[in-house]
Write the structure tokens for this entry.
Amino acid sequence: MEIAVIGGGHGCYAAAASLTENGHNVRLWRRNSEALKKIQHNNLIKLTDYKGTRSIKINNISSDLVEVMKGAKLVVLPLPCHTQISLAQQLAPLWQDGQVGYLPPGTFGGYLFAKAAREIGNKSNIIFGETGTLPYLARKQGDDHVRISVYATRLPTGLFPFKDAEIGFNIIKNAFPAAEMITDLLDGALMNAGPIIHPPLIIMNAGPLQHFDTWDIHNEGTQTSIRRVTDQLDLERVLLRQALSYEAPHFPLKNHYNDDEDEWMYGNSSHEKLTDSGDWREHIDLQTHRYMMEDTAQGLTFLCSLGRWIKQPMPISEGLLSIGSAIVGSDLYKNGRSLENLGLMKLDFQGFKERLLKGFI
């Protein structure tokens, strides 16, 4: 299948290498053309995983977005959601009939991409899917080298517009066999684990993160008190899902840590594999890191916005978002992924569900 991978981060390089190895024809685009040149001269990405290390030749590595998008059946967008607004404008005129965009995860970014296309008059029939996490726990080891510590075993996927869900899901499933169809795009967005796992880990580890040169929030940073906060935060997510009429499975994050529970998105022993790799022992700047700019500023804002809309209490989410705002010195909700900023606050519940089902008509 012709697949475009958009972006230059850990998940993008992992997707380009893994999808190519699985027999797909991949085109990789990165905004930073200078950084892209480091792999563009031979089109090779070195991949390390449980099979060992090997070099994989990517069909097309380009800084030309038009070239990469043209003819792609699936467009994979494994990017931090705070990059989506500018990218949505760039992609808006380039989407073509029948293309499927997949955001792993997306924080409801699929709606943002669809809205941007429609607003400039692009009426192509595009389907967007979102899941709860990246298909890979991955970290770059160099300019041309990515290591995948864990492959996702379950990717609950919601789609927009839901009336075309089966068509879109079949294309996604072809590339990602771990995908599992749930319902609409909001269902998929509310599976996003990032806003649940990362804000407590960075905010409650703020002292060590600022004191030590490197710190592993998933190893020594994951202590009992923090896990308790994470469990309560995730319970808010599950209760929000239920209040919005979404049924189980909810993929509670506690299952990631406990192999005796139902299998989570990364399967059993995934937390141990993550910490054993050492790849998450890193420097985290609380002012700029994506755990703050994406998962807190955008992800928690989205959860709080939905809670405010339906009058569902979200005290842990609101509290962490307020503390994050104090740390960075600005109101994270104001410019975050809220229903107000998405232009959806004017819809009532039924109107919102109708939009999720039918798209822009």
Remarks:
- The mean pLDDT is 96.
- The CA atoms of residues 83 and 156 lie 23 Å apart.
- The two ends are 29 Å apart (CA to CA).
